[in-house]
Amino acid sequence: MIRSLWSAATGMIAQQTNVDTISNNLANVNTTGYKTEVAEFKSLLYQTMQTKSTTANNTQKPVSAQVGLGVRNSSITSVFKQGSFFESNSDSAFAISGKGFFAVRGADGNTYYTRNGNFTWSMGANGLTLTNSDGYPVLDSNGNGIVLSGEYTTSKITITSDGTICYPDASGNPQSMGITIGVYQFQNPAGLEKNGSSLFSVTAASGAAINESTNNNVEKSTIVQGYLEGSNVQVVDEMVNLIVAQRAYEMNSKAIQASDEMLQQANSLRR
């Protein structure tokens, strides 16, 4: 009886995590570059009630009798499916079509990766620096910050599909400035660690970042200027998942109530 109480309690805890994950997805439905997260579960230890050979005449039984002891969360995995593109009025808005990630240099000096291409040109002592919305400098294909002299007009800067930064000459024809926005891939993007603000960091599970500009063994991504990648959250699917999680939570609570009533009846047998 006590076993059923604990098993149902673990089910309620697991479904609460599931609801938390779904709620986070719905909250980020309009977050640029956000990727849907999915909660995954696994069963806990099993208690053997009867082995395969415990009949009265020692006959070999085909199966044993085991009772599970509940469930727990095993992982919360991000689904890196391409999101829809939305037009932006900003000349420094970029969307990636493909498996690539932009790279930015964080305040701690470490490199982080993102699908959020809502960048801006920031004027500083060194000139114009391409940064994300938090002010972190965007890195080029060599791992350096993208810095231009202050003589350039940001509205005239264009980006080719391979990330090359161009500026018009005297005739108005875009000319390469010798700088390419860095785009990186990972063998296992689901292994990236989520750091908030749509940033990811490298882990052993994700593998090292693969520079698309120096590696010819990966499918190249395409950068689209004037567009942003929306989240890949499907609201209808999330609402259905929320209903399923709520019903599962409710059923586990019913199991706890049933176990409690059975314990009350067992306690009242002495009376």
Structure description:
By secondary structure, the chain is α+β, with helices and mostly antiparallel strands. The chain has two domains: 2-50 and 66-80 and 234-270; 85-229, no CATH class. The protein contains two helices and 20 strands. It has helices spanning 2-27, 235-267; strands at 37-43, 46-50, 65-68, 71-78, 85-87, 94-97, 101-105, 111-114, 120-124, 127-131, 147-148, 158-159, 164-168, 174-180, 183-185, 193-194, 200-201, 210-211, 222-225, 227-229. Strands 8-7-15-18 form a four-stranded antiparallel beta sheet, with no helix packed on it. A three-stranded antiparallel beta sheet has the order 9-10-11, with no helix packed on it. A hairpin with a 4-residue loop joins strand 12 (158-159) and strand 13 (164-168). The longest helix is centred in the C-terminal third of the chain and has 33 residues, at 235-267. It is elongated, with a radius of gyration of 27 Å. The model has no long low-confidence stretch (mean pLDDT 89).
